[in-house]
Amino acid sequence: MNNNSNHSSFEAEDQVTDFGFRKVDQKEKPSMVKAVFDSVAPKYDIMNDLMSLGIHRVWKQIFIQELAPRPNLTLLDLAGGTGDISFGWLKRGGGTAYLTDINYSMLSVGQGRALNRGYVDNIRLFCVDGENICLPDRSVDRVTISFGLRNCTHKENVLAEARRVLKPGGRFLCLEFSKLIIPMLRPLYDAWSFQALPRIGQIIAKDSESYQYLAESIRTFPDQETLKSMMENAGLERVTYQNLSGGIAAIHSGWRI
């Protein structure tokens, strides 16, 4: 009787995942995340500026520079949303960019921005689940995910899929919020995350709960070393990371050799 009870307990734990600080059924999380981004999509870019005090633009420029765009290289931009990474790739001379997102609302904003910028020929937009990428093995040169991995239910599946679609010699890069490594700044950072951001979200986007979730999702995301190990377990090699702004964000890089 006890063995059966323990087995049931383990199964229940396996079916649970984080949604911010809450634990929810794994099957429920995708629709809950979708609701968040349906809500925030129209104000996503202005809220990014407010949330990061504009610093996210600097982080993304560093990230795009790391990609080393060239005309003969193709980019798969996962959770690309409103298109910042894809547009930066193209602006710096990269080849075809596949701008993808699982959320139609976010992708719609990205499509509008692409048209406004005149990006038509070298960009393709698709609704794609990063856990099940609809591309052949060894088909792209770069795979990126920027501020999207923490919203995925099975992060290890995303990393494995990224490696699968990379050509040998291809590179995966992830830009994500990470663990602050300057202890004296943590009280200020916590106050900004959990008090200021939901209030700003309520004022600008008329939605405090989504921004409460986004703040919580940052804290539950794996730290720098843990994500590095996850990437290595997915088969990526020469995995490194660099901290940005004292670890508020980090860029992780891995190669398919």
From TrEMBL:
Cell membrane listed as a keyword: no
GO molecular function: methyltransferase activity
Pfam family, one: Ubie_methyltran
Annotated positions binding S-adenosyl-L-methionine: 82, 101, 129-130, 146
Reaction equation(s) it catalyzes: a 2-methoxy-6-(all-trans-polyprenyl)benzene-1,4-diol + S-adenosyl-L-methionine = a 5-methoxy-2-methyl-3-(all-trans-polyprenyl)benzene-1,4-diol + S-adenosyl-L-homocysteine + H(+); a 2-demethylmenaquinol + S-adenosyl-L-methionine = a menaquinol + S-adenosyl-L-homocysteine + H(+)
EC numbers for this chain: 2.1.1.163, 2.1.1.201
Entry-linked InterPro entries: SAM-dependent_MTases_sf (IPR029063), UbiE/COQ5_MeTrFase (IPR004033), UbiE/COQ5_MeTrFase_CS (IPR023576)
PROSITE patterns from the UniProt entry: SAM_MT_UBIE, UBIE_1, UBIE_2
HAMAP family given in the database record: MenG_UbiE_methyltr
NCBIfam families reported for this sequence: MenG_MenH_UbiE (TIGR01934)
Family to which the UniProt record says this protein belongs: Belongs to the class I-like SAM-binding methyltransferase superfamily. MenG/UbiE family.
Known role: Methyltransferase required for the conversion of demethylmenaquinol (DMKH2) to menaquinol (MKH2) and the conversion of 2-polyprenyl-6-methoxy-1,4-benzoquinol (DDMQH2) to 2-polyprenyl-3-methyl-6-methoxy-1,4-benzoquinol (DMQH2).
Name recorded for this polypeptide: Ubiquinone/menaquinone biosynthesis C-methyltransferase UbiE
Organism: Commensalibacter oyaizuii
Lineage: Bacteria, Pseudomonadati, Pseudomonadota, Alphaproteobacteria, Acetobacterales
